[in-house]
Design goal:
The structure holds two protein chains of two kinds.
Chain A (H helix, E strand, L loop, with lengths): L3 E4 L2 E5 L4 E7 L3 E9 L6 E6 L5 E4 L2 E5 L5 E6 L8 E9 L8 E2 L3 E6 L1
Parallel strand pairs in A: 2-11
Antiparallel strand pairs in A: 1-3, 3-8, 4-5, 4-9, 6-7, 7-8, 9-10, 9-11
Chain B lengths: L4 E3 L2 E4 L5 E6 L6 E7 L6 E7 L2 E5 L6 E5 L5 E5 L8 E8 L10 E2 L3 E5 L1
Parallel strand pairs in B: 2-11
Antiparallel strand pairs in B: 1-3, 3-8, 4-5, 4-9, 5-6, 7-8, 9-10, 9-11
The chains are: A mainly beta, B mainly beta.
Chain lengths: ~110, ~120
């Protein structure tokens, strides 16, 4: 079945630094979504990417969808303590079965002040 | 706040018991998806309901079953509980159902502990 992998599993970042988290799918995706889950909370939608090579920005967050539509990345600049949480990517296969989103294992971000 | 509400928030059961979790979708949404999130892992798709019909299922055994009602609220039922069923169960609603491009609005979840 489809697998979505995220690296790194943990990211310890000094406040003010930049970092990138990566998402890789075993199959071609029709679209990819990113969610953020704060500790003790539930996933909250951040962005959706649909087109090959698409790049979208939300303030300090930059999201990219790979040309082959099998990978994606999230880059955060000037990390703040409010960025703490787990970032999940979730993909839908190009040949979707039941319209399900397959989530990756997440990147847990800890920010050192 | 997403407008998706789940009940109960916490639940403790013993092995072999049965449990029913409930979800009210956001106003205007006719699709509900259920996910299981074990500690430290990503949400795993259980199934999705669109206009009262199951619209896709993940790799979960038949003892996981569900319903969607005419008001689009939903239930998740788990029979013969096992220890590994201990997890956060998340309900998510979305506007339209047949399109896989919609974002999900998650509820706060039900934390189930099986002893």
């Amino acid at each position: 079945g489809q697998q979505v992998m995220q690296i790194p599993q943990y990211q310890h970042v000094q406040e003010g630094e930049d970092f990138t988290t990566y998402c890789n799918s075993s199959t071609t995706l029709s679209n990819i979504q990113w969610y953020k889950q704060r500790p003790g909370g539930h996933p909250v939608f951040l962005i959706q990417l649909v087109k090959s090579g698409e790049v979208k920005k939300q303030k300090r967050l930059t999201f990219q969808f790979g040309e082959a539509k099998k990978n994606s990345s999230l880059h955060i600049t000037a990390t703040q303590t409010t960025d703490v949480g787990t970032y999940f990517c979730a993909g839908v296969r190009a040949v979707a079965a039941g319209n399900k989103l397959t989530f990756g294992g997440g990147t847990r971000v800890l920010v050192k002040p | 706040e997403t407008g998706v509400t789940q009940s109960p928030t916490h639940l403790i059961k013993t092995r072999g018991q049965q449990v029913t979790l409930r979800c009210s979708s956001q106003s205007g949404h006719n699709t509900v998806s259920w996910y299981q999130q074990a500690l430290g892992q990503g949400p795993q798709f259980i199934f999705q309901y669109y206009r009262e019909e199951e619209n896709g299922r993940g790799n979960f055994p038949p003892r996981f079953s569900g319903l969607q009602f005419p008001n689009y609220s939903s239930e998740l039922n788990v029979n013969a509980l096992e220890l590994d069923d201990s997890a956060l169960y998340l309900c998510a609603s979305s506007p339209g159902g047949q399109v896989s491009y919609e974002k999900l609005f998650f509820g706060s979840g039900t934390q189930l502990s099986v002893l």
